[in-house]
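W.,

You were right to be curious about this one. When I first looked at the sequence I had no strong expectations either way, so I just let the prediction run and decided to look at it fresh. Below is the sequence, 245 residues in total, followed by the output.
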Amino acid sequence: MKRRQQQKGMTLIELLIAVTLVSLISVGMVMAIRIAFNTQSKTNEHLYANRRYVAVNNIIDSQINAIMAVSAECIGSGAPSGKVSFFQGEAQSMRFVSAYSLDEAHRGYPRILEFQVVPGEMNQGVRLVVNEHYYNGPYSTGAFCTGMGTNPMVQGPVVQWLPIQTGRQSFVLADKLQFCRMVFLESLKEPPYQRWVPLWNKPYLPAAIRIEMQPMPQAKQRLPLVTITAPVRVTRDPLETYVDY
């Protein structure tokens, strides 16, 4: 009996305490790992959004820098030979031909680019989208022209363009914007020698294009989209009737 009483052992209470401690340590480790994964996921999402914003700025800048001076065979437009300069410049819409595309960058065929400002998801803010079409000559651009008309904002006749259609093929360049508008730089012979206009109706290309964007308040915690001002380096007249402006 004395030998049995001197043997060491573990009681049931001690076993329960040990199991409880191990469980608490395991739960703490799992929670720490989960918090670390959540932090990593949020950090990756934040970096991805910032990289996307930088990429969008680079894409828009490259598309404008690769702009091409081309004409459109606008049948029934009333213009001589039916040719007009293919460039639509409005505050919410813009069309031109560029050698840079989203799919092939500078390596592919020229594209007809259509920029359009549309309402955002659930009508919250606005977003900037772009469509791409293959450019196959003056008749491919003339398909977007409906003729000549008038606009109360400018003097003289202006080219009338088909409305830009957006859908699943449209690529969202910028989203969750408080506003987005496009303006165009016009060179003048007299002071102030240049001015920004919200509507472009000249037979030649503007000197520069500016896309003004302002993110919504709830989207400012990320890298904000900034106003993009890109010079147009093409000086050739698409109608081969250069006008000294």
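Here's what jumped out at me. Helices lie at 2-6, 12-65, 138-142. And, maybe more interesting for your project: Residues 12-65 form the longest helix (54 residues).

Coffee later to discuss?

I.
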